[in-house]
C-alpha cells in the first residue's frame, strides 16, 4: 500500500521501498523526525516504487533488496539506467550480509549500502550523504567488499591503463582522494581549490571512466589497482 506525503520546502525527499510494513513504518518515522528529511512515499515492492518515483520525484530512494514483483537490485538498475532523464540515488538497506547482493547493488548503480541493524544515526547520515551525491557503504563491509570486488568482478570495461590517458592529472589526484574517503570539502582543502572546482572535476571524471557515482568511482579505482587495498584479516591471501 502506498502512503504519499508532502515534502517541505528544501527538505530531502525520500521514498521508502520495503515489503515489511513494520520496517517501512519504522524507517519512515526515523527519517521524518529529522527537520531536513521528508518521506514522500512508501512502497511495498519494487514495481510500486518505480511507479511512485515518476510522480513523487524523490531525491533518494531507500530500498530493500528482497521484494516481490521487482527486487531492490532490479529497481536500482531501473532508477539509474543510462539515458534516464532523472536518475534517483539509491541507498540499499538490507538484513542480508551477502557479497553477491552488495556487488549486484554496486553494479546496478547504488549510491550506498547499509545493513538494517546499523545505528539509526548512521542511517540518517547515509541518507544525507547519498542526497549530497556522496557514496556510503557499511564500515563493517568496506574492506572485505573492496577486496572481493577486485578479485572477482569487473565493473567497467575501462582499464586503469586507459584511464591514465583519459583523466587529467587533477582528476587523477581527486580520484585518489575519493578513494581515501575524503568529502568534496576535504578534497578542496587538500588541493587548495574552490569546492565548486572539485565538483566540476568529479562531474567530468565519472563519465570518462564509465561510472555513475562516486562510490563506483572508488570501486573502479581499487579494481584497476590505481589504489590498492590490503586483504581483510578474514580473507585468506592467494
From TrEMBL:
The keyword Transcription regulation applies. Keywords: DNA-binding, Phosphoprotein, Transcription, Transcription regulation. Gene3D superfamilies: 3.40.50.2300. Pfam families: GerE, Response_reg. Residues 13-131 form the Response regulatory domain. It comes from the Bacteria. PROSITE patterns: HTH_LUXR_1 (PS00622), HTH_LUXR_2 (PS50043), RESPONSE_REGULATORY (PS50110). The modification 4-aspartylphosphate is found at residue 64. Residues 160-225 form the HTH luxR-type domain. This is Response regulator. The lineage of its organism: Bacteria, Bacillati, Actinomycetota, Actinomycetes, Micrococcales.
